[in-house]
Amino acid sequence: MLGLIADETSNWKKDYQDSIDNIWSIEKTSKGIFPHLKRTYGNSMKIIIFVMNPDKYLDRRLALTELLKKTPFQFKFIAINDELELAPSAIAKNHDSKRTVDSFGRDFSRGELASTLNHLLSYSKFLDSENDLAIIMEDDAHFIVDEFIFVIEHLIKIIDIRKPQVYLLTPVISYLNSNSKNLGDDYKLVEVIQSWDSSGYIITREAAKKMIKANSKSWFIADDWVRYKRHANVDIYNVIPSIIKQNLDIFESNLMDSRNKAIKTKSLKYALSRIGYKIISDFKKYFWLLPFKGYVRNKDV
After folding, report:
1. What is the SS3 assignment for 281?
2. Most buried residue among 142, 153, 159, 217 by CB atoms closer than 10 A?
3. Using CA of residue 208, residue 213, residue 170, residue 177, what is the dihedral sign?
4. Strand, helix or coil at 52?
């Protein structure tokens, strides 16, 4: 894993105050498909869940459908066409192999490329829709329905759809405790430093636009949140404790299996960049984030 440290935290207090100035209320449609979140001045907001699920994994689709149909949100299962999108000509068009090797130490495995393209597809589908927020899930995601709904209802009071924001609902590697915000009595919202999990997260339209632009020729993996923060300039937050986990007791993680089998071919450029970046990130962590920002390393991840 890359030991990367994200850029310095923004002035969250101001962002938080700006966001709570607009009070939201939950209002289900007559069909009960998804909630409309209505500002006090009358505009409405829609939420949709996109689940990345190839047709060959029907068992995953059925398992997740049983959970999702108990929520008030509309949901759709989507996936790229592997035969088309992973053909050599398509890969040459949509993937920057050299840039990936230089920055990641090796090229994508087939599974990693498929995962990244599926996440990018979900962002495009989101932007093509009339929804204001999207919850992106992988098909091995698992959650407790009541906890999921409770946290989402609290998060919508904080999310500012005018800004490029991502809210991870999964465990993260490290985060900042400084300026954390309570979500009820049992949860809090923190700023992410490092994470390698894309099983479930909320994204605004502004974030989706920037993330597509930054990774349009897929050169970093979908769950590399540090690079999305650096190159797409999006704000990444996390719910503590997490409410979505991979259902590894039943399903194997396609991405982790593919990642573990991949061969790392380190280029000189990659080796030098990693040394330089680690020096800078460690200096920042030990002399700024730890003493002043409440840096926390999650030992369970």
Report:
1. helix
2. 159
3. negative
4. strand
Q: What 8-state DSSP symbol labels residue 6?
A: P
Backbone angles phi, psi at 5, to 5 degrees: -120, 130
Dihedral sign, Cα of residue 197, residue 201, residue 203, residue 208:
positive
Instruction: Please tell me whether the overall predicted TM-score, pTM, comes out greater than 0.70 for this model.
Output: yes
> What one-character DSSP code corresponds to residue 287?
I
Q: Are 155 and 18 in contact (CB under 8 A)?
A: no
299 by Cβ neighbours in 10 Å (0-12 / 13-18 / 19+) ranks as: exposed
In the structure encoding, which two tokens stand for residue 56, read together?
């060959």
Query: Residues 168, 113, 105, 193: what is their CA dihedral angle, to the nearest 10 degrees?
Result: -10
CATH topology for 12-297? Spore Coat Polysaccharide Biosynthesis Protein SpsA; Chain A (3.90.550)
User: Residue 174's closest CA among 291, 28, 29, 3?
Assistant: 3
Give Cα separations from 147 to 61, 67, 115, 192, 224 (angstroms): 21, 12, 27, 21, 26
Q: Rounded to the nearest 5°, which phi and psi values hold at 61?
A: -60, -45
Taking alpha carbons only, the member of 155, 156, 193 closest to residue 173 is 193
Confirm if 50 and 78 have CB atoms less than 8 A apart: yes
138 within 8 A of 52, measured Cβ to Cβ: yes
Q: Where are the beta strands (DSSP E) in 234-285?
A: 235-240, 245-246
Query: CA dist 282 to 5, 109, 180, 290, Å?
Result: 8, 29, 23, 10
Q: Which residue has the tokens 């009595």?
A: 185
